[in-house]
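Predict structure. Chain length: 425.
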Amino acid sequence: MKILILHRVPYFKIEYHRGISHGRHDVTYFGTEAALATLPPELRCERVGRPGARPAFEEARDWLAGSPRTFDRIISMSEYELLDAARLREHLGVPGAPVEQVALARDKVLMKRAVEEAGLRVPRFLPLPRLLQLDGRAPWDGRTVLKPHRGASSEDVLVHDSPREAVAAVTAGRTGVARLDAGREFADFQVEEFVTGPIRHFDGLVQDGEVLALTASEYLGTCLEYARGRPMGSFQIGCSEETRAWVSRALAAVRIEDGTFHLEAIVHGGELVFLEVGNRVGGADVVATFELATGVHLPSYELRVLLGEPVRGTLPEPDPDGLRYAWFVHPGHHLAGRAYGGLAGVGAFRSGPRVVAWHELPPGAPLPDHITYQAGETVLAGIVAGDTPEETREWMAALFGSLSVDTRPATAAPLTPGTPEQVPA
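Prediction complete.
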């Protein structure tokens, strides 16, 4: 089989060799030089670089116009290039999910409409242009979320006290989001009512519309708070048959039929309220904690599904130890530009018996200038295990309460032991 991969996610996050036999198949990786540099040197494959100045679809189309060839599969494992892969498949007549189907799992307005039509509860919402036409007269009162249709990591997400305040901020050009304040791309944003309650995420694998593997987790902290500089994590919880059925209905509504999924919902008044879903693996250490709990490496099995290989009946049995796993991460992007001196208050946690993984940024390393959950980029990331969800949650809460980041202005003299400026976590 000839396989084209639009390569964006660093190789170690996917480990393509675990799901694709590079000896049996002819695999071509198409990506920027930075992305291609993450491929193992010994991997049998073709590497094709692209400038990265335009969408992957456009650059791939132009490359193939000059060097025509055929492929049996075109795959992207990046949320940001799922639509590019779908457009390229349609352009070349390659099997796989079409653009219209993929868009349902990328556009937050389209997906909420579809889920609502399937009879599941969603937050009340409006496209931003419609709210502007209504001068803020939305079908709800109170706190209102303004966010992009296709965003991720809570970038450019804002919370206003009311729909009218959201409109006032947008029309006055004072949202703090450059493209909105410049009067551009209003159609790329939506607003929705702020629903309160614990936020959960559901991760798993689906083939031919059937959910084959599933875990449920609950966040400690939120992606929005993380974007603003607060730590967050999530811990695995139980998953009832009723919840499993709800997840299956939501996936069917947005036509996620093959591959992995990451679905988020709020528990409000004892009811699950759909927030959003992606036809891809979750970020941070979702893949690692899923594999620890179930034995299933999600990217590997997703690749097998996308190649048309039957997966049902081949999944490993869950580890009988019954441990619950959690991942945690502390941001550093909000401190970019400062000199980083390390972490304080973590000594009692770093080598604790519950710790499965601990990745701490070494003092003096540069802080990220963008939102990232990636170990080795943010100041702290790790995994912890416990016998119950409560144990892992309490451990993370204690860590977050103790942890602080030592920094000082980058122009100051080098850090000396015992004299850091402590920035509270």
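Summary: The chain has three domains: 2-96, 124-193, 199-409.
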